[in-house]
Every structure is written in C-alpha cells, then in structure tokens.
Amino acid sequence: MNKDYLKKNLPVITADQFRLGRIHKIFHRLEAAEPQLKLFASYMMVINLTIGDDFYVPTDYIDETKTGATAVWLTLTKKEVKDEQLTTLPQFIAGKQHREEDLTAVAIDSKEGKPLEEVMPLPTSQSDSSEK
After folding, report:
1. Where are the alpha helices (DSSP H) in the chain?
2. Residue 84 belongs to what domain range?
3. What is the number of structural domains in the chain?
4. Rounded CA gap, 102 and 52, in Å?
C-alpha cells in the first residue's frame, strides 16, 4: 500500500468529520505485525495542540478512497478513536522496536495546509455577527 501522499502537517479527519490533529511522523514496527491482535505494521503520530494529546493511529485506518493533498481521512469515527485508546503510546514505540519515518512537510499556511475550509466550513466568530 503506497502512502506517498502522507505529509507532515496534513490534517487528519475522522469519518464523522472531527479534526483529530495533524500528522507528525510515521512509526514502522520492526517485528511482524499481527493485525488480528491489533498489532499493526505502521502508525501515524497525530498531534493535536488544541487539546494537547498525541494520537497513534494505525495506517490501516486510513480511508484510501478519500486520499488527497489536503487531508488524511480515517475510517474511524471520533468515538471509535476514543474507544480504541489511540492516545496510548504503542509498546513497540516505547521499547524502541521501530523505524521512524520522517515526512516531507507541507507549510501550514500554504494551499495544502488549509484544507478544512474546503472540507468543512469553519464557524464564523460571534463577534463578526454582533458588529453588523
């Protein structure tokens, strides 16, 4: 499965359109993966500076039908991310049994770094409506 479209700083969005955070890096397991035991081969580290959490999302949960240069969509909903406890650092990363992949970065203020306005409109601030 080719993941060349994964770039540092791309937004990660759940299946129910919740902005989880931005991709930071990819970790690849050195030992054999066992998906049936939820021991996946590769994980994206997704950082969320708003709530201060890091998420470790298996790349198996990327929705390949929605790939593009503006965002990475997951097949999981926000509730499923919480239920799967994806804020827990995987043991193979903590035990340094991984290969770390640095990603090419997209500028946050570039066209590629502003996908949410295209994906889902951001709410206008209340101060904008009260000034009129």
Report:
1. 78-83, 91-94, 116-119, 126-130
2. 11-130
3. 1
4. 21
Question: Residue 22 CB: number of other CB atoms within 10 A?
Answer: 21
Q: Is residue 118 part of a domain?
A: yes
Residue 3 lies in a domain: no
- Give a yes or no: residue 24 inside a domain: yes
* pLDDT tens for each residue of the chain, 132 residues long: 457 788 999 999 999 999 999 999 999 999 999 988 889 999 999 998 887 889 999 999 999 888 667 889 999 999 999 999 999 999 999 999 999 998 888 876 433 333 444 444 444 444 444 444
Q: What's the angle, vertex CA 117, arms to CA 113 and CA 121, rounded to 5?
A: 155
CA distance 57 to 18: 14
Is residue 49 included in any domain, yes or no?
yes
